[in-house]
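hey so u asked for the seq, here:
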Amino acid sequence: MAELESQPLSDEERAELEELRAEKARREAREEARREREELAALRAERAKAEEVAANAVSAPKPAAAKPAPAAPKPQPKKAARPKSVEPKPSRDEMTFAQRMVTSKEPTGENEIPGMAPAQKIIIVLALIAFVIFMGYTILTSMGLL
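ran it, structure tokens below
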């Protein structure tokens, strides 16, 4: 195999290689054009849908009294389109001990970073204590004092 790599290509092999590269480039260009057409079609469909929704929204607002009661309930739109309802967080006093340990305090300012949760602080302190004990043991053992 090393012998084949060190030999220069013949004119025939070079022409075949160039032909294969050109074919690969044509395939990639066709694939790229196909992807762009699909994306364009999707964007056009999305824009048409948005315009339709906007047109419906403009013509839909009518006085509530003039609106007749619907005879049958309308089908609900997809639930994925609506954001999920978020349950309100219980106050700090209503939380259990475990919930208080793993949740950080709410930031007081708009640009303030929330503080660390108490459990996180405890874990960091325990890790530092273990590190100091390990280093002390290592140093004392290497000095021959233990």
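The chain is about 60% helix and 0% strand. The two ends are 61 Å apart (CA to CA).
lmk if thats what u needed
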